[in-house]
Every structure is written in structure tokens, then in C-alpha cells.
Specification:
The structure holds two protein chains of two kinds. Helices cover 30% and strands 16% of the residues of chain A. Chain A is α+β, with helices and mostly antiparallel strands. The radius of gyration of chain A is 23 Å and the shape is elongated. Chain B is mainly alpha-helical. The longest helix of chain B is centred in the last third of the chain and has 26 residues. The two termini of chain B are 31 Å apart. The chains are: A alpha+beta, B mainly alpha. At the A-B interface, helix 1, helix 2 and helix 3 of A face helix 1, helix 2, helix 3, helix 5 and helix 6 of B.
Amino acid sequence: MNNRPPDEALNGDPRVEWSAAERAAIERLRAAAPPADLEESVVAALAGRGLVGSGDVAAPGGVTGGPREPRTPKVPTHRAWAWGALALAACAAAFFAGISVSDRGAGRGPATPPALERYLLLLYEDESYRAPVTPAEQEARVAEYSAWVSDLRERRIEVDGDELAPPSEADRLDGRRDAVEATRGGPTGAAGSLTGYFVVEASDRAAVVAIARTTPHLKHGGTVVVRQVVRH
Amino acid sequence: MALRLSRGAEEEAREIVQETWVRVAGRLGTFRWESSLRTWLISIALNCARERARAVGRETAVADVEAAGSFATVPSVGPTSVEPIDLARAIDALPDGYRRVLVLHDLEGYTHDEIGRLLGVEPGTSKSQLHRARAGVRARLAAAEGGAR
């Protein structure tokens, strides 16, 4: 389809036949790569609606608190596709690659929305976290995290969260000792100090991990640990 | 395609792609293979784009497009040098109807028969709109080139 001459049936009007320069520009336009995070945001949108099932959504580096691997582009940039075509083709590719899709609309009776679970996204920072320095940077960072929350809410994903005061201001109570006394300073693990959290609703672990991958915290070198809230 | 359908508005394009995926995932069971999967996906993306355009009051009816007038000052010879960003801006400046046809034909590679089925118009309408769309792009590129001199 794309190989046929693009100027079919325009009656040979030279005013509307593309010149070589125009054709070249069209080809370059078609070859424009989509934003690297487009796939992530699409997966998050699907996850938020419970449309991506468990199984083959790869866990990102850093989410489990282990060493983070460099983030690799998940969008095939070697293909000369426009945004939409790439996303749609990737959709089909994902289906055939094994990302399961819910049975909604599959003609097997009324769809039942999956039960949503609550998850904590625990935000850790260590020396690799690129913390804001100036008040303006701090304000911009807060706005960035807030925008992420707003974006999820716009996609009807339940989310809440807060930044925590510095670990140095934490009070620690240790029940392992006979006399429980509060001491100043929180614990610091391999991933650094806990500095914030989000509470997110998602259909399953793969879905929440897909959402966690989009947090700005990872972009700035932080670590996100996902923990499910147990229902009793 | 989403980027051009949204006139270069990246956030809107992102929303179109996301909504397309959501609809595809929700309706996959209704796909009957009466068209190609790609065409089905494109048609959903077009609907999403159309709804977005309506939502922001930007949808242009075909009649309005026709009334927008001819592109009287279209050079018969195209520019010798075109930057993709200038081409993108020229496409983005087209009325919705023209832009859709041009995107489907020249960027996505659909035939006029296929575009007719996708947009619910006659193939002849697709041809005439492509004609006008290209003329509009050419006129705008020429104007930009003249302004740059």
C-alpha cells in the first residue's frame, strides 16, 4: 500500500504533484520517532482500565529495589512509522507477543470489570537521586509529580500520595527492645531513604508495575518499590 | 498520524493514541476481520481524533472546508528545499477534512477507495480534497519560503 506512487489520480496537475524536496520531507515526517515514553503511558492507560492482564509486562529496573538497569527504548526506532501507526502496530505486536487482553467485548456476555487492588508505591532516594537544589527547582519537581498524579486521575486511575519529611526528622520506635523508646532518624536500606509514597488502585501486579514505570521519581534517579495492600 | 490529526498538539496526540489503544483492547472481540486489522485500528484512531477535535470546537465540516476557498496562489513548481518541520506546519494548518485525507493518503499510504470507506465519503471526494490539501500545503510552503527570503 505504501509502495504505490503517492500521486495517483490528481489529473497531472503540476501544482499538486509533490516535488522531490516535498517527497523527501514527507518521508522524513513519516520516519519521525514517537516519544520514548509513549508506550509506557499507553500501557499505563490500559492498566488503569484493567485492560492489560498479568504475565508478560516486563518489570522495570529499580522497582524491586535492586540495581537499576539503564532504561532502553521500548519503541522500535528503526521503523519509519508515524506516531499512530507505530502505536497501533505495537498494539497488534503486543497482542501476538503475549500481553493478555481482557475478555471485555469479546462476545462472551457482559464484561465484568476486574476487582482492583490497592498498592503502595514507596519512593526511595539515595545519593543517585538528583534532588532539586533551588526553590524554583523544588517547585518544578513538585509540579511534575503533581502533574503525574493528575494525569492518572484524568485516566480514572485512583491515586493519592504525599511527600514525607526528611528521614532525619523521623521518630523510630523499636519493639525488639524491652523499653520501647522513640529515637530520631529512620532506617536506611539498600535503596536509600523513604521520602514519599503513592497509593494506587490497579487490577494486578503487572498493571501497577506498568503505572509505577511512569513515575517521574525514576527519571530523577529514585527507586520505587511496589507493595500490595493486603485485604483482610 | 495522531500528531498530524491533532495539528501538532503533542498532548492531544498522546491522548488520541491512548484512547485508541483502550478502545482497541475493549473491542477486540468485536473485530470480524472484514477489514484489515490495520484499517480497523486506523478507523478507531480517526474517530478518537474526530471526537477530540469536536470536544475542543475545532471540527471542520466539509461544507466549511469547501467554503474556505481555493488556494489561488499555488506555485506550479514546488520548493527545492523543504524542512520536515515546515511541511508539518503546513499540514497542521489545513482544515480538518483536507488534513485527514492528506495524512491518510500521503503519510499512511491509503488509496482513495480505502479513504472513502474510512471516512464515509466517495472516492472522488477524497481525490478532490487531496487536491485541495496539497494545494494548501504548497501555497503555505511557498509563503514560508518567500517570507524567509
